[in-house]
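Case study.
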Amino acid sequence: MSDLIIRPAVPDDVPAIVAMLADDPLGAQRESTDELAPYRRAFERLADDPNQRLVVAIRDGRAVGTLQLTLIPGLSRRGATRSLIEAVRVHADERGSGLGTRLIEWAVEESRRQDCQLVQLTSDATRIEAHRFYERLGFEASHLGFKLLL
Amino acid sequence: MSDLIIRPAVPDDVPAIVAMLADDPLGAQRESTDELAPYRRAFERLADDPNQRLVVAIRDGRAVGTLQLTLIPGLSRRGATRSLIEAVRVHADERGSGLGTRLIEWAVEESRRQDCQLVQLTSDATRIEAHRFYERLGFEASHLGFKLLL
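After joint prediction, the assembly is written out as follows.
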């Protein structure tokens, strides 16, 4: 396969990112690819926030992966900054290619560059394969993740 | 008991917040209450970030609880903003008083005011009482929480 680039997302990437968010057993129920305006507004909020990193993985000019990294300062752990990984997606054509690993490794390296002392994420309890994937990358499933829909 | 106020933390609250972070089975191993400089630097980073809400609960002029709420814009879920609760602590003198509930209710209300569509948090797998507490407040333990220390 040709080279892969991981770079900050730009407004023109929004349709491809949304398509990847929707092409997923859980995402299919939550996203609406025919109405992009709310996603474009959200993109602007992300772009305005210096603690956000929304990236895309590009191969042959096409977005084939995405991930959102949030830097979170805090008092806990002697004033540690932590990072949070959300919205990891790999294009169906690229699954099994190691791209997921590349994306998470990018997030971990960026977290080190930003002096984070901890990287965290939650994964839906039904995503058993994802759990093994994160454990192989050194993450520990030490917590329960609670959600409340408003 | 006298009235309780939940308000944004100010620099003078840092020692009391750190004392609460440290007075905890897990926090005791992670915090150092005799060296406040890193906490004060972290407080400045929080104060500079408009998506952060670090609050203290005050009773009789004394900080008896704390919580950090982070607003996280994102593309997922049709451009939903979510919030993340971290670093919830209730002073030992106040445990069982309902103050934890008051703090979480404040965070949920603030999340609604900020048009969040989801509130999330992780809780260490060993904090069984905390899990029941969050479930009573309507949170669902739908996820596993993964951490990687850097």
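Observations recorded in class. The radius of gyration of chain B is 15 Å. The longest helix of chain B spans residues 99-113. We will return to this complex in the next lecture.
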